[in-house]
């Protein structure tokens, strides 16, 4: 049976969903339900008779009569799952939400396979304004596929109430595929866009509702928001309207089985920079972002991040990082595009270490509400100031990649996988402008081995982000990288060329204590296999951290 519900109360109760259309399906479902009673707990003869009479009253909207008959059926047989289920639905029609939730949960305990029960329980929780619980059951209903568009609609409304406007849009866009749900789904999709500051896209959605449904409640409610001076939609309580800035700070402690002189998110490797020693460290991070521009065309955002590690035992390995980033992007749509620029500066043991600059234009194509494909190109330049990298690792790298994103049933469950090809060319040159040629007896640290690091790389990665039991958010990732170096290696007396294959593993678990405070437990592992023994190493990093955001 298609679930029904009381009218939605946003917009001074002027917006009503067309869900009452579902009552016409009850007459079809009633006979089927009698045939399917064997799937739940067996009811006695009196309970069955009362239940059958209750269905007739329910079908005709006689809620008081239906409740009395279903209640008598439950009293005659407390194990009658269907009688409990329909008593719960009737309680919902009568506005008795706590009682409705209690009956629906009891019916599901007796018979977890009851069709549509998860959807109806989610709607009951929604109507009771218990949005976190509603989200759990509506996600389950959406995954089960029964009345998928209805589940998507209410799940979108729930996320809207919780302040997750981006997630709400995903499900509301899916619900638009149902012609009867489309006006209401489009109305709330428009409000979500407005609340994200995307005024042009939001007004376009609301103007279409007002134009196509001018006499309906939802069309009337859309009129004030669709004008040129559109007012803001009501924000979710206690969530405020999206602010243009954000700040964060984090403190963590980590154990590293093999300290390396390089940022953890960098692919820089030098034999002298691999300590092959374990140590612990304290890590401080802070930063923020500010939206400089958010227009009908696109947005521009600036970010800054600070990083400082302090080792407990090893000296000379403390790393400080500063990152400035600018992101320009079009408004979301079927095709979106943008460009990001990043500048990194690092100090090693509080002295200048290296700097790099990256530029990445990209384009993404949305594939329905549950998938997207991104194509990108990155150019990166690095400049090292200190050994063991200077000057052999000064280089320019060009990379092109393709990435696929898939939503696994809901917006907070995302699978991604991708491929990248890159080529790095070092900039070390001799006095005549040509590449330095090393003599066999010259040490690599003299800079003569600069061409040791010219390579072509192929990279494959896969990752998934999802909640676990609504307790923690988990991110799991695996990366495999092949690097084929282009010149004979000086560490092998200019014999064979170097070949590396690298495996990276990431597990990140986050638990939100409050909306602003989160605890994290992270693992980062590296296995680098190389035919040059100096570059063959393993590394395991485990860290715990606390993060505060505003």
Structure report:
- The chain is α+β, with helices and mostly antiparallel strands and about 550 residues long.
- The protein has two domains: about 20-225, Tetratricopeptide repeat domain (Serine Threonine Protein Phosphatase 5, Tetratricopeptide repeat, Alpha Horseshoe), CATH 1.25.40.10; about 245-550, monomeric porin ompg (Porin, Beta Barrel), CATH 2.40.160.
- About 30% of the residues lie in helices and about 35% in strands.
- The protein has twelve helices and 14 strands.
- The chain has helices at about 25-35, 45-60, 65-75, 80-95, 95-110, 115-125, 130-145, 150-160, 165-175, 180-195, 200-210, 215-225, and strands at about 245-255, 280-295, 300-310, 320-330, 335-350, 350-365, 370-385, 395-405, 415-425, 455-470, 470-490, 495-510, 515-530, 535-550.
- Strands 1-2-3-4-5-6-7-8-9-10-11-12-13-14 form a 14-stranded antiparallel beta barrel.
- A hairpin with a 4-residue loop joins strand 12 (about 495-510) and strand 13.
- The longest helix has 15 residues, at about 45-60.
- The protein is elongated, with a radius of gyration of 30 Å.
């Amino acid at each position: 049976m298609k679930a029904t519900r009381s009218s939605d109360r946003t917009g001074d109760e002027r917006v009503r969903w067309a869900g009452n259309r579902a009552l016409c399906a009850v007459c079809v479902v009633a006979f089927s339900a009698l045939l399917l009673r064997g799937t739940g707990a067996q009811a006695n003869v009196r309970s069955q008779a009362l239940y059958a009479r209750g269905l007739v009253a329910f079908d005709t909207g006689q809620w008081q009569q239906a409740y009395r008959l279903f209640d008598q059926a439950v009293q005659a047989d407390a194990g009658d799952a269907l009688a409990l289920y329909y008593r719960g639905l009737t309680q919902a029609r009568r506005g008795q939400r706590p009682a409705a939730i209690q009956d629906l949960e009891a019916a599901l305990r007796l018979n977890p396979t009851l069709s549509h029960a998860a959807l109806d329980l989610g709607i009951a929780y929604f109507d009771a304004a218990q949005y976190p619980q509603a989200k759990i059951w509506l996600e389950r209903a959406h995954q089960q596929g029964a009345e998928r568009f209805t589940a998507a609609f209410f799940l979108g409304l729930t996320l809207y109430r919780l302040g997750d406007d981006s997630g709400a849009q995903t499900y509301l866009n899916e619900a638009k595929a149902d012609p009867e749900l489309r006006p209401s789904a489009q109305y709330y999709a428009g409000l979500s866009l407005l609340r994200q500051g995307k005024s042009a896209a939001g007004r376009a959605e609301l103007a279409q509702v007002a134009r196509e449904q001018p006499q309906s409640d939802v069309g009337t409610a859309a009129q004030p928001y669709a004008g040129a001076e559109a007012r803001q939609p009501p924000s979710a309580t206690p969530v405020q309207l999206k602010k243009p800035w954000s700040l964060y700070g984090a403190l963590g402690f980590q154990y590293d089985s093999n300290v390396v002189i390089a940022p953890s998110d960098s692919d820089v490797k030098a034999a002298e920079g691999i300590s092959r020693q374990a140590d612990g460290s304290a890590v401080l991070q802070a930063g923020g972002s500010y939206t400089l521009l958010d227009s009908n065309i696109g947005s521009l955002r600036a970010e800054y991040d600070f990083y400082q590690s302090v080792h407990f035992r090893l000296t000379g390995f403390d790393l400080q990082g500063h990152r400035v980033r600018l992101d320009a992007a079009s408004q979301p749509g079927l095709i979106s595009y943008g460009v990001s620029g990043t500048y990194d500066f690092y100090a090693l043991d509080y002295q200048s270490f290296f700097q790099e600059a990256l530029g990445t234009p990209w384009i993404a194509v949305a594939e329905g509400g549950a998938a997207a494909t991104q194509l990108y190109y990155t150019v990166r330049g690095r400049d090292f100031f200190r050994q063991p990298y200077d000057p052999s690792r000064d280089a320019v790298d060009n990379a092109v990649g393709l990435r696929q994103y898939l939503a696994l049933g809901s917006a907070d469950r995302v699978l991604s996988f991708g491929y990248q090809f890159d080529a790095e060319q070092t900039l070390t040159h001799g006095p005549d402008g040509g590449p330095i040629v090393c003599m066999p007896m010259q040490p690599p640290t003299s800079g003569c081995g600069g061409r040791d690091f010219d390579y072509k790389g192929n990279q494959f990665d896969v990752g998934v982000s999802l909640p676990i039991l609504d307790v923690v958010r988990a991110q799991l990732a695996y990366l495999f990288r092949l690097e084929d170096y282009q010149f004979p290696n000086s560490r092998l007396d200019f014999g064979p060329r170097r070949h590396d294959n690298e495996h990276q593993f990431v597990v990140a678990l986050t638990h939100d204590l409050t909306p602003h405070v989160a605890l994290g437990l992270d693992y980062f592992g590296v296995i680098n296999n190389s035919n040059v023994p100096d570059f063959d190493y393993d590394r395991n990093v485990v860290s715990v951290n606390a993060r505060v955001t505003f």
